[in-house]
Amino acid sequence: MKLDCRSRTIDVRSIALTICFVQILVASASKAATLKLASYIGDHAMLQRDHTVHIWGQGQPNQEVSVQINGANVTGKVDREGQWDVQLKPMPAGGPFDLTVTSGNEKAVATDISFGDVWLCSGQSNMQMTLKECDDGNSVAEQAEKLANLRLCTVAKGFNGKPQSTANIQWRRASAQAARDFSAVAYYFADRLLKDPELAKVPVGIVDSSFGGTTCEGWIPNDALAKLNKSDLRDSLFGIKPGMLYNAMISPLGKGPIKGVVWYQGESNADRPASYPLLLTTMIAEWRTQFESPDLPFIIVQLPDFAQASGGLHWEWIRDAQAKAVQSTPHAALAMGIETNDGFNLHPRQKHELGRRVALLALHDVYGRPIAARGPVFKSASLEGSSVRVRFEASKKLTARIPGLIRGFALAGEDGTYRFADARIDGDSVILHCDQIPAPKTVRYAWAGIPDSTLTDDSGVPAAPFRTDDLPPGDIEVQKQPVTHQVTTAAYEVAVDGDGRVTSLVVHGKQFISNAPGAAGATSIPAFLGTRSLPMILSPGPSLLSCSDDQVTLMLAFKPDHMTWTLTNRGKDPISYRIALLPQVACSSEEATGTFKLAHGKSVLRVSGIDSASHSDEGTMMQTTIKGGNSKEIEFTIGN
């Protein structure tokens, strides 16, 4: 019995200690629960003018919360989950103000808050691409501080399986550094808005929430995804599942409101255009629901010129899908991307014109400015004998980008085979004729990855691509390619294509470089989406050729009996450079000199600066690594 009594006493003490410990934990947790503003509402933030605005955050459950700004004082209550949300009555454009939130003995303050127009800019890598990566971007950024009414907001890249209420979100005043690191399309768009006389005194806030390599379905909420066909849903780059980008990068923006959305995406869905209209319209509807704005304006950037195919399909088909989505969606507009670049770079550096075109649509459609914001838009087509009259909605009169030369139209008969047509302007119409198509049935315009099209009007914006047929997407297209550069000496010949790849190296009449497709041939820099392009090609001297992108440069220096290829990596991460050799080329390591000897018949070439060479039935692959912030030279010496 005594043993039992002692045991019971120990149990009681243990229970008492446990209760005390739990009370301490509860008290500590209660003390640690501090009042917080939403991560979207920080110093320098922009709130939407002339609309009821949500102010939200975290606090101690069941406590009252009070929000003061610009003379307004609104109260609310923290719910049982520790969340609070109050609504401010509409305020006109102005600021800056301090936003003060109090609850009990706690206070949270956000300074330098303005009321103006907030635009959300989202999409994948071409929206993400920064000003410093674009033509004239650094010089444009130097002028950023003159835009006193501009605020730039960046949502940190992330993904999550569940909708999040917080994220790493930073608002900044416009400055050279902030502008350089900001989305170029978004910045050029904002810059053009602020040049409008009626908006010059209205603060503008631009929110960049973009993530390269992402599909449209990554930006759609989970509940909406459940209603879609699973076979139409795919992961984004890095294995990011559908819905995860919305959860981490859109959900934390709360209920808004905002002025509008600029969406630049589609590259990652280009191989499946049939499913894209439903994906995009679903996303638009869901974002409008989140921001409590059924008429929220969306401006969709129709993809620009690009030569390469995606899954066998060229970009005219994803452009068609984007147009269908916009046509079926009220308060949505399509910004023309064609005729802004040469089409040989997946990430074109020419972003200024795209930003301008987006701004024109916003000024016309959202702000009601009486300006020419669109190029000619297809209205109807009718048969006139063996010719076709195509009518357009246009700003004043139709014209040609190249005076007197109307290109880009094609006609097809019953067999669906298109031929380019002669074209002439007649008022609001273009008359088409093709001798080889005596009985035309359908018309296409600007229907190519890089369309050779010239129709425009007083707006200066190109006519929108269109087709009158309903044929399924085809995978055959005669497409122009970048210019190849050729170097010829008595001992060797070198060919470099428009992507900066060395596609041919002939020594004394013998080819050394493999012509296998893709990364298995020529020279290449492996990247996430295949191989890296070096499309900026210049000749800085008679015997020099430079091939670059924003971070990597290949400089080729040619001498009579040798070459030097210098690779400079200005990025942070290492890159690999590969040279694919033909199977007929024998490769052996000469350890004493640190070189590789290459022989094709009697033609000999010695190469230094290579880290390794791997052999297979398809040939030898030589490879070298260049660390971030470093350069490396590859020397080629012609032998006997």
Task: Describe the fold and architecture.
By secondary structure, the chain is an alpha+beta fold. The chain folds into 4 domains: about 35-115, Immunoglobulin-like, CATH 2.60.40; about 115-365, SGNH hydrolase (Rossmann fold, 3-Layer(aba) Sandwich), CATH 3.40.50.1110; about 375-465, no CATH class; about 485-640, Beta-galactosidase, Chain A, domain 5 (Distorted Sandwich). Helices cover about 15% and strands about 35% of the residues. It has 10 helices and 42 strands. The strands form 9 sheets. Strands 2, 4, 5, 7, 8, 9, 10, 11, 12, 13 and 14 form an 11-stranded mixed sheet that branches. It has an 8-stranded antiparallel sheet with strand order 32-33-34-35-42-39-38-37, with no helix packed on it. A 4-stranded antiparallel sheet has the order 15-16-21-20, with no helix packed on it. A hairpin with a 2-residue loop joins strand 40 (about 610-615) and strand 41 (about 620-625). Helix 5 crosses helix 10. The chain is globular, with a radius of gyration of 30 Å. The N and C termini lie far apart (about 105 Å). The model is unreliable at about 1-30 (pLDDT under 50).
What attributes characterize this protein structure?
alpha+beta, 640 residues, disordered N terminus, 42 strands, eleven-stranded mixed sheet, Immunoglobulin-like, eight-stranded antiparallel sheet, 10 helices, Rossmann fold
